[in-house]
Specification:
single chain; alpha+beta; flat; 270 residues
Length: 270
């Protein structure tokens, strides 16, 4: 049974495995007299509805829709990293109706962003998938059928296509500009507080998938892209394993600072 103040497990729920050990997602020991039941996840770690909800919601807020266990493996300093299904999370987090709606809307949106590219056709407003991420010229099959002739629009400016095709930079419509690219070219510079002597653009495009990312100026120079989850160096733009062959996390890169990006990488999913 749940309450508005704090969610708890139903002690009569025989589908859950209750354990008496502390919550593996909560770094603080339970308060004296705490009677909150803890259940075991499929990976073997113990959780409460509140701690599981908080952890999984924090992942969603970071742009990650795959729920992985952050607890340490017993007797090691290695994270468990077991992946929980949404069905398991929903049940053991005792998600409310509002929480389920929030989770499911965000999971669907992130999954669609990762695996497909959709935009509303400017002609009929139905959603169209772009099959070739390097070509801005996209055909709408609905408008083509309705108009009895091929209808193409620009993925970038969302106007009727004008000019030769295929093209990856722009169409011939006035004002057709890649605003993400303009941001990369004109963003301010920043310094990384933990990496001495480095000044670089404050915004980068992930070298794997093209997602715009910004360093929070804490910790080392490497970051993990929230979209493709690939780690790369914010300074030289190499993937972390390649960068670390001639450098380390907190010193300047051997190849120096990569210049401002003049193109956005296209994610070639396997």
């Amino acid at each position: 049974m749940t309450t508005q103040e704090e969610k708890r497990y139903d002690p009569k729920d025989t589908t859950l495995k209750f354990v008496s050990r502390p919550d593996d997602l909560d770094p603080y020991p339970p308060e004296e007299g705490d009677k909150c039941l803890r259940a075991e996840m499929s990976c073997g770690h113990a959780v409460t509805p509140e701690s599981l909800t908080a952890w999984c919601r924090s992942l969603l807020d970071q742009g990650q829709y795959k729920f992985k266990c952050p607890a340490l493996k017993k007797g090691t300093l290695q994270k468990c990293e077991a992946e929980w299904s949404y069905q398991e999370v929903r049940r053991l987090a005792v998600l409310t109706h509002e929480e389920m709606q929030y989770f499911e809307e965000n999971i669907a949106r992130m999954a669609a962003t990762e695996y497909c590219e959709f935009k509303a056709c400017p002609g009929c407003k139905t959603y169209v998938e772009r099959e070739d991420p390097s070509n801005l010229n996209v055909q709408c099959t609905v408008c083509t059928s309705d108009k009895q002739k091929a209808y193409h629009f620009c993925w970038q400016c969302l106007k009727n296509w004008k000019g030769p095709a295929p093209r990856s930079d722009r169409c011939d419509n006035d004002g057709c500009v890649n605003h993400d690219l303009e941001l990369l070219r004109n963003c301010r510079t920043t310094t990384l507080s933990q990496v001495q002597g480095v000044v670089c653009p404050s915004i980068r495009a992930c070298p794997t998938c093209g997602q715009k990312v910004e360093h929070d100026n804490t910790g080392c120079k490497n970051i993990i892209c929230p979209r493709c989850l690939v780690e790369f160096c914010f300074v030289c733009l190499k993937l972390t394993p390649e960068c670390l062959k001639t450098s380390s996390y907190f010193i300047a890169c051997s190849d120096g600072v990569a210049p401002r990006q003049t193109s956005i990488p296209v994610w070639r999913r396997n």
